[in-house]
Amino acid sequence: MDLEKQPQQPAAPVEPAGIRASDADRDRIADILREAMAEGRLTADEHAERVDAVYRAKTVGELEPLVRDLPAPAGAARPATPGAHGQEGPVGPADNLVAIFSSSTRKGRWRVGSRTNAFALFGSVEVDLTEALFGQRLTVINATSVFGSVDVRVPENISLRGSGTGIFGNFEVATLESADPEAPVVVVNGYSVFGSVEAKPKRGKFITDLQERLRKRLG
């Protein structure tokens, strides 16, 4: 008995809501939540709960409900809209350091990525870059502290910049400009609510190869 061969059906396309979320998608959702809290649309507890869900989300469909009841910032497209991902941020996956009623530390000899998300809720996060290996010139750290603390320490011979807000809390970045134009640049952005975000150089800590290059240039 001959059986007719059925034509192979093409694979069904993935539904937009099932597309894997990128780091840029998560960051833009976090920006919407930050604006909403600053405007009084979310309480600190509601904001902390949603931000935690943002960085745990795996798909675009998981992100959209977190801002469905909030307006998008003026001039910004809603990042969770299917297919509208916008421009990607720095290349490579982000490192996520999360401390909820706990502590999280990254220090020692480690290779720092182009972007790190640090989130502290009734906890503390420490990001120590004094012995880190920089694989790129620009490193961005997105720091959020709610009733907690995020501390960033950098070598004295790199450039350090930042921008953020403290809401009943402290956001402080000790700006540095390296004498070497090729030195790594660390940018710390974010905000704190009843907490603190602090970024500053660690005295006596330097990136050795930068010291040697600068000494040759001046010598």
From TrEMBL:
<dbReference type="Pfam" id="PF09922">
    <property type="entry name" value="LiaF-like_C"/>
</dbReference>
<dbReference type="InterPro" id="IPR024425">
    <property type="entry name" value="LiaF-like_C"/>
</dbReference>
<feature type="domain" description="Cell wall-active antibiotics response LiaF-like C-terminal">
    <location>
        <begin position="105"/>
        <end position="178"/>
    </location>
</feature>
<protein>
    <recommendedName>
        <fullName>DUF1707 and DUF2154 domain-containing protein</fullName>
    </recommendedName>
</protein>
<feature type="domain" description="DUF1707">
    <location>
        <begin position="19"/>
        <end position="71"/>
    </location>
</feature>
<feature type="region of interest" description="Disordered">
    <location>
        <begin position="70"/>
        <end position="92"/>
    </location>
</feature>
<dbReference type="Pfam" id="PF08044">
    <property type="entry name" value="DUF1707"/>
</dbReference>
<dbReference type="InterPro" id="IPR012551">
    <property type="entry name" value="DUF1707_SHOCT-like"/>
</dbReference>
<feature type="compositionally biased region" description="Low complexity">
    <location>
        <begin position="71"/>
        <end position="84"/>
    </location>
</feature>
<feature type="compositionally biased region" description="Low complexity">
    <location>
        <begin position="1"/>
        <end position="21"/>
    </location>
</feature>
<feature type="region of interest" description="Disordered">
    <location>
        <begin position="1"/>
        <end position="25"/>
    </location>
</feature>
